[in-house]
Specification:
Blueprint: E1 2-4, H1 9-24, E2 32-35, H2 40-47, E3 53-55, H3 59-64, E4 72-76, E5 82-87, H4 92-102
């Protein structure tokens, strides 16, 4: 889970990397981006043609996972439990290594 907002410059700067990451993920791993409150038009403008799955108006999820800062990446294991939480940018190589360790 990638928690972000369009007003977070660091979050937006990561979007191209996330599009690349999406293509590198194993078939049984999913990247879900949770956006706090940006409009559909703003999100579409920010992600462009990238094939990213975005859950809009996700403030309930922000609260459920106690997200205080963005970007925050939450890794969920096969049983659906939170395994790791990373606040700030995370390089694609590190993300892929974490995913591999979860498999």
């Amino acid at each position: 889970l990638y928690f972000w907002t369009g007003s977070c410059g660091v979050c937006v700067s990561k979007l191209p990397d996330l599009a690349v990451l999406q293509e590198q993920l194993p078939e049984d791993v999913h990247l879900l981006m949770l956006n706090a409150n940006d409009s559909k038009g703003r999100i579409q403008n920010l992600i462009g043609d990238a094939r990213l799955t975005v859950l809009m108006n996700a403030m309930d999820s922000f609260n459920d996972y106690a997200i205080a800062y963005v970007p925050t990446t939450v890794f969920i294991d096969k049983e659906g439990k939170v395994d790791q939480v990373h606040v700030g940018l995370l390089a694609n190589e590190n993300t892929l290594a974490i995913i591999e360790n979860l498999r």
